[in-house]
């Protein structure tokens, strides 16, 4: 029996407490954390590496690759590329792992039959 059949809708505050305590919501939060925390840590490390290299390895970052293009410029542009890649990976992950479960929870809360 779902929560909607057990009387969701009488008190909005207790409804959200029931949703938050549900195993589906716990699984949704777990799935989100599995992606967000490691990817955020990796990106922050990558950004910190860039900043540290720019500050302490100026000769390396100033190395010309071709023309006026230096290692530092390439690393800087890769910061933008990595942001777009992470965004694309998150969208794909959310579409496959998060959205179906979030939709299921929403349908249960709203009392919509599927």
From TrEMBL:
The chain crosses the membrane at residues 34-53, 65-91. PANTHER family: INTEGRAL MEMBRANE PROTEIN-RELATED, MEMBRANE PROTEIN. Coiled coil: none annotated. It comes from Amycolatopsis speibonae. Keywords: Membrane, Transmembrane, Transmembrane helix. InterPro entries: DUF485 (IPR007436). This is DUF485 domain-containing protein. Pfam families: DUF485 (PF04341).
């Amino acid at each position: 029996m779902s929560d909607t059949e057990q009387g969701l809708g009488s008190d909005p505050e207790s409804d959200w407490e029931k949703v938050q305590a549900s195993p589906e919501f716990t699984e949704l939060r777990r799935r989100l954390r599995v992606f967000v925390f490691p990817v955020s840590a990796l990106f922050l490390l990558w950004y910190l590496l860039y900043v540290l290299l720019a500050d302490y390895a100026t000769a390396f970052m100033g190395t010309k690759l071709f023309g006026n293009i230096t290692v530092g410029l390439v690393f800087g542009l890769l910061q933008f590329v990595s942001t777009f890649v992470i965004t694309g990976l998150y969208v794909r992950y959310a579409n496959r792992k998060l959205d179906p479960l979030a939709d299921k929870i929403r349908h249960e809360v709203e009392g919509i039959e599927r």
